[in-house]
UniProtKB/TrEMBL annotation, chain A:
It comes from Bradyrhizobium commune. The keyword Transmembrane applies. The lineage of its organism: Bacteria, Pseudomonadati, Pseudomonadota, Alphaproteobacteria, Hyphomicrobiales. CDD domains: TM_PBP1_LivM_like (cd06581). This is Branched-chain amino acid ABC transporter permease. It comes from the Bacteria. The keyword Cell membrane applies.
From TrEMBL, chain B:
It comes from Bradyrhizobium commune. This is Branched-chain amino acid ABC transporter permease. The chain crosses the membrane at residues 7-30, 36-53, 60-79, 99-120, 147-164, 193-218, 230-255, 261-282. It comes from the Bacteria. Belongs to the binding-protein-dependent transport system permease family. LivHM subfamily.
Length: 308, 291
């Protein structure tokens, strides 16, 4: 952990954050808006990587946690008029509770079964949002009256700051003894258990931390968008983006996940002139990375550093 | 009257679910691969059948055949371009191959879905049915197409059962699902068995896709829900257990039909999802699954 502060990765990350912080001084509001969304997605992907990359569990339900956080915050604000900050805190809290409820049955099973249980959670949430349309806005989406700020620069800095702090905490956690136990349990659960580690407890902790950051990020995103809809925070397709981001950036690297998310969102936007083929091209690139550089962006870069 | 309607409609949809899930569970049973591009391959078959019959006017039978052929090609492409490279890769640790196959086939499915959307738009397409008209069964007006769908599904599943249990190739496939290493010791090439399984899978997915296109219609938006429902049926039945997924398909199909008729079509999928969570909780390996 201490060696991280003297490593190349730390200085590169620091330099990137400093450069990113100066962006509002010379780029357009359009670019800032794009990156703001990308940063929130970065947190989604990092939170997912903590659970998947380290515990080896494919969580198909990142958007269950994100959606609960986002919709709780959105509904409390839109239907009850509670203050933005209270809504954000309660959104994150709701996501933690939802994470616990999901984790209890889900953690009893492994592999594909775990994947399915988490996928079902997303489908259920989606169904409930449509059925309780009075409360949630249904398929059209929920319009949120309040926003944190309308200043593009301020929104950008909030997102950047939030992502940086989340990255520091999640990365720190992944390098801590807890992260190491998770990693061991991901590679060989029986042996890790035999060494006396309570795997379920550690995974539960990872799930809750993952839920907290997903929910918080989802709630913040809702107050940036000014709307909550199934298509932006719950849909399985959104979850796919989160998963692809993490694998693309490099699983088990946490920081790579954020890079992957930023790449996906920015690349999607750059390819917008290609119209409907944009998603095709992004998926094709992601598939090539999965096939030829299974370590992802950061994994490839780090292994290169290790060799030289 | 309504009970008969539920019985008939439920049977047709359940048979279709069963056929759609059988190929999926076969591949998992034999090679441990969960193919998340399943929905995309089914939709590709339906859209190809639709395009061949509606745009190029080749007729309904030829259209259906073209649909199945496209699914077969797509299945082979999935195996050779995505699954096999991941399985053979030395850079991916063995314990992570499963996750890479999931991610890889997921991306592959999205690529197919986007290509369909690009060339044929997102609009829903209904494949021209092979048989048209309605018949009266016990006072229920039933489209002949619905009966046709149910019969073809049952026939194909019965044929598959014969193929697996009564032919040499089928026995090799069965053996590979039980002990892959043992099969190679007997001098059979595992890759050849996988190719056979993917071929069977492609044909099954193709027939299921084309029938679905005739019965309910498809669009590129159906891709995700189709994969998800095949996945849930297969897990509910027990991964790799073909008979388990048949039972699960009928449970889910009837539960959905009952909900749609007796409660509201809006709640259609909810009870099945709840059941799935419940089963996962008390019997994580599924109804007929081995651990």
């Amino acid at each position: 952990m201490a060696s991280f502060f003297t490593s190349r990765l730390f200085f590169i990350s620091l330099a990137l954050v400093v450069i990113a912080a100066t962006l509002p001084l010379y780029v357009s509001g359009y670019v800032l808006g794009l990156l703001t969304v990308a940063f929130y997605f970065g947190v989604f992907a990092m939170a997912w990587d903590l659970l998947f990359g380290f515990a080896g569990e494919v969580n198909f339900g990142p958007t269950f946690l994100i959606g609960v956080g986002a919709y709780t915050a959105g509904i409390l604000n839109a239907q009850f008029g509670w203050s933005v900050y209270l809504c954000i805190v309660l959104g994150a809290l709701a996501s933690v509770i939802a994470g616990l409820v999901l984790a209890l049955p889900a953690l009893r099973v492994r592999g594909p079964y775990f994947g399915l249980t988490t996928l079902v959670a997303v489908l259920m949430l989606q169904n409930f949002i449509v059925v309780f349309a009075d409360l949630t806005g249904g398929e059209i989406g929920l319009t949120i009256p309040d926003v944190i700020t309308i200043n593009a620069g301020a929104n950008y800095w909030i997102a950047l700051g939030f992502m940086t702090i989340s990255a520091a905490i999640l990365y720190g956690l992944s390098q801590s003894p807890i992260g190491l136990v998770l990693q061991a349990s991901g590679q060989d659960p029986v042996q890790a258990g035999a060494l006396g580690f309570n795997i379920v407890k550690h995974k539960l902790a990872a799930f809750i931390v993952s839920a907290f950051f997903s929910g918080l990020s989802g709630a913040l995103l809702v107050f940036y968008f000014g709307t909550a809809s199934v298509g932006t925070v719950v849909d399985v397709a959104v979850g796919v983006n989160v998963i692809v981001s993490a694998v693309l950036g490099g699983r088990r690297t946490v920081l790579g996940a954020a890079l992957g998310a930023i790449f996906l969102i920015v690349a999607g936007e750059f390819l917008r002139p290609t119209g409907e083929l944009a998603t095709f091209i992004v998926s094709a690139v992601a598939l090539l990375v999965v096939l030829f550089f299974p370590g992802g962006f950061l994994g490839a870069a780090l292994s290169h550093e290790a060799r030289s | 009257m309504r009970a008969f309607q539920i019985l008939i409609d439920g049977f047709a949809i359940s048979a279709l679910y069963a056929l759609g899930a059988t190929g999926f569970t076969l591949i998992f049973g034999v090679s441990g691969v969960l193919n998340l591009s399943h929905g995309a391959i089914m939709v590709a078959a339906a859209v190809a059948a639709w395009a061949a019959a509606s745009i190029f006017n080749v007729g309904t039978y030829a259209g259906a055949l073209i649909g199945v052929a496209v699914a077969l090609i797509a299945a082979f492409a999935t195996y050779f371009a995505v699954v096999k490279p991941i399985q053979d890769s030395r850079r991916i640790p063995n314990e992570e191959k499963e996750i890479f196959v999931l991610t890889g086939t997921l991306l592959w499915g999205i690529m197919i879905q986007e290509l369909i959307a690009y060339f044929f738009t997102n609009n829903a397409k209904t494949v021209l049915p092979i048989v048209e008209g309605v018949v009266d069964i016990l006072g229920v007006r039933t489209p002949k197409n619905e009966i046709f769908t149910a019969i073809v599904c049952c026939l194909v599943i019965a044929l598959l059962w014969l193929l697996v249990n009564r032919t040499r190739t089928g026995k090799a496939v069965l053996a590979a699902s039980m002990n892959p290493r043992g099969v190679t010791l007997l001098g059979l090439e595992l890759t050849n068995i996988y190719i056979v399984v993917w071929a069977i899978y492609g044909i099954l997915a193709g027939i299921a896709g084309v029938l679905l296109g005739m019965f309910l219609g498809v669009s590129s938006y159906s891709v995700g829900p189709l994969t998800a429902s095949a996945f849930s049926i297969v897990v509910l039945g027990g991964l790799g257990s073909v008979s388990g997924s048949l039972i699960a398909a009928f449970v889910v199909g009837y539960l959905e039909t009952l909900t749609a008729y007796l409660v509201s079509p809006a709640y259609r999928t909810i009870p099945a999802l709840l059941l799935l969570v419940f089963v996962m909780y008390i019997r994580p390996q599924g109804l007929l699954g081995r651990r």
